[in-house]
Amino acid sequence: MKIFDFNIHLPFIEDSDVNVVIKQDLNLSSKDLSIGLKKYNETIQKTEGINVLLFNPNLHLEDIAGFKKEIQSVCPKYALTSLVDFRRPDIENYLEKLIASGSRAIMFNSYLQEISESDFSSVLKVCQIAQKNNLVVCLDGSYGTAKMFDFDNLKLACFVADKIRKTPIVLVHSGGKRILEAALLALSNPNVWLDTSFSLPYYIGSSVELDFAFAYKKIGCDRIVFGSDNPYCLFDEALEVHLAFFEKYKFSQTQIENVMYNNSINLFAL
């Protein structure tokens, strides 16, 4: 089976404290990315394509041409998604450099960036520029931590989806425990997609597991993309959980192939 991993990161530090890993992820240089690429080479070779989430919001301001050549040689079908510093006063020039760097998508993370309702209009401005330039918009859709009530990422997703209709919007992590709410948004907005990473494996064995099966089937599996969230959720474990989930809930072979590979290829026009 062909696999495209929509959600892979390249921090190479190993620590039992996930915040230590996230901190490195937020500060990776182009040289660091090369180290991460080598560290996860064996994992990447198990796929036919990857989307690398670049969490350093200033990474594209430096020259990443060398890293792009390396990743091209390792995995020809790849995309880059960049976390955006939407608060910059020079946002238009900043986004021009992001586009020139070769990023195919932009990313917002409500928890890491502490995005409150007062920031929504600034996020929307960036999304409007992205739409004009045919960039995919990714919004973190996880649910948890002590910030879960302070920064409502699904409320942000609804705000953006109400205004952005022409470019795909991907809810990374599918909304977590709020998978049904995320599904309702996707059902009413045909440009909204869901990424399976982290949340699906996390909720296996809980009552929420059935909600994931219901939601994905209800949407139709044409706008669902497989992601591992490696190294935060190890690729091999994520893959095993996903395939067992699809078998348990009797997803068709076509549905599985779409989620695991075809949808991401179509999304990025690779």
TrEMBL record:
SUPFAM superfamilies named in the record: Metallo-dependent hydrolases (SSF51556)
Domain Amidohydrolase-related: 127-269
Domain of life: Bacteria
InterPro entries according to UniProt: Amidohydro-rel (IPR006680), Metal_Hydrolase (IPR032466)
Name by which UniProt lists this protein: Amidohydrolase
